[in-house]
Specification:
The structure is a single chain. The chain is 39% helix and 32% strand. The chain is built from one helix and five strands, in the order αβββββ. The longest helix has 37 residues, at 2-38.
Length: 94
């Protein structure tokens, strides 16, 4: 019985190390990205995964926003493709 546990101990140890070095940080990164995307609002300056920099002109629905790349040039972008928010706008005062 003890020898069986001793044989599986290195395997369990490797899995634990992999979890804390690879899986857990990736889950936290996904969670942070999701929070960033959910907090997008009109006026935020964003960078897409394709490298385009623009300003959010309209939040259409849960999965899509409209980004103004230049004056009069607006594109529809899937929210999950936003890589970074460069500057946030202040919330409207009530």
């Amino acid at each position: 019985m003890e020898s069986a546990i001793a044989q599986f101990l290195p395997l369990i140890l490797i899995f634990a190390i992999m979890y804390f070095l690879l899986i857990r940080p990736q889950q936290q990164k996904v969670k942070q990205h999701k929070a960033m995307v959910e907090a997008l609002r009109r006026g935020d300056q964003v960078v897409t995964q394709g490298g385009l920099i623009g300003k959010v002109s309209k939040v259409k629905d849960d999965s899509e926003i409209e980004v103004e790349l230049a004056e009069g040039v607006r594109v529809r972008v899937v929210k999950s493709t936003i890589a970074q928010v460069l500057s946030k706008t202040e919330p409207a005062k009530e």
